[in-house]
Amino acid sequence: MTGLMETPASGYTDQPPRMGFFTDTSVCIGCKACEVACKEWNHIPEDGLALTGMSYDNSIGLGADTWRHVAFIEQRKPLGRQDPGVSHEDGGADDFRWLMSSDVCKHCTHAACLDVCPTGALFRTEFGTVVVQEDICNGCGYCIPACPYGVIDQRKDDGRAWKCTLCYDRLSTGMEPACAKACPTESIQFGPLDELRERAAGRLAQMHEAGITDARLYGEDPNDGVGGDGAFFLLLDEPEVYGLPPDPVVTTRDLPAMWRRVGAAAGVLTAAAAAAFAASMLGRDG
User: What is the value of pTM for the model shown?
Assistant: First the structure.
């Protein structure tokens, strides 16, 4: 599997620290400034302005034309000690909340999309992020089912794969990604991944001390099925509530074992064919 190598063997002799996102959904206000900033900076086409019936969510999910997606999740559930005094005619106070979260490509440590790309269009940058080079992509689509998060998508008008680049062009000049720059509440935090993990652990402890026991980190564990994400989250409910897989696993995990079995089977067939050929020749000689 194609993991993150932090040695000169990765091709970078003076490698900077791995960079990433920590998204604290507890302070997301659903303003969509991140979506707009992402589209403006990366010149991403419009992805639909119709109401979907999913609260105020008009972009539905990540795709070739949606590299940042803000989810709006309505729940009949108390806000806990964050309660700003929400009340409704058909219910009392404390019985309704909105969960809002800005989703993005996870820039996995073990990225299956890198494993399956036949052209090298997908590559690992010196910042540890995963980027698609659109001028090299041949539109084969192998990366799309390989992604355990369903992030990558093909653009209908050209067939090529597109996704978040974590603003690689901005990082290369010392700037932060457009979405993090635009976020008014610092829900999207950008920086060295190790520092973000420490900050997230402190924020989680703060939430638990405040009585918000459902709070949890998602994607921060280097020992999970993808080796940890370069973009991870603080969630206020189960991952499935946000449309995230509960236990993502790199989809190419079993490829080495599969190829070993294929090789063994091919060896057995070759040996059997050789034995049959030898037996037939002996029969002729007899």
Answer: 0.81
Residue 148 sits in the same domain as residue 134: yes
Q: Convert the pLDDT of each residue in 47-70 to its tens digit.
A: 877 777 777 888 889 999 999 999
Beta bridge partners of residue 285, listed in sequence order: none
| Three-class SS state of 225 | strand
In terms of Cβ atoms closer than 10 Å to its own Cβ (0-12, 13-18, 19+), residue 282 is exposed
Domain of 264, in residue numbers? 254-286
How many domains is the chain partitioned into structurally?
A: 2
How many C-beta atoms surround the C-beta of residue 70 within 10 A? 22
- Structure tokens, 82: 């964050």
| 263 pLDDT higher than 90 | no
Average pLDDT, the chain: 86
Question: Can you tell me the mean pLDDT for 240-262?
Answer: 77
* 156 and 262 both lie in a single domain: no
104-137 burial: b if 16+ Cβ within 10 Å, else e: bbbbbbbbbbbbbbeeebbbbbbbbbbbbeeeeb
Confirm if 19 and 194 have CB atoms less than 8 A apart: no
Whether 185 and 29 have beta carbons less than 8 Å apart is answered as yes
Residue 47, domain CATH = 3.30.70.20
Q: Could you give the angle at the alpha carbon of 124 between the alpha carbons of 223 and 146, nearest 5°?
A: 65
Do residues 32 and 96 share a domain? yes
Considering the domain architecture, whether residues 278 and 149 belong to the same structural domain is answered as no
CB count in 10 Å sphere of residue 186: 11
Q: What is the DSSP secondary structure assignment for residue 185, as one 8-state letter?
A: T
Q: DSSP label at 281?
A: H
- Segment 225-251 mean pLDDT: 95
Based on the domain organization, do 98 and 178 belong to the same domain? Answer: yes
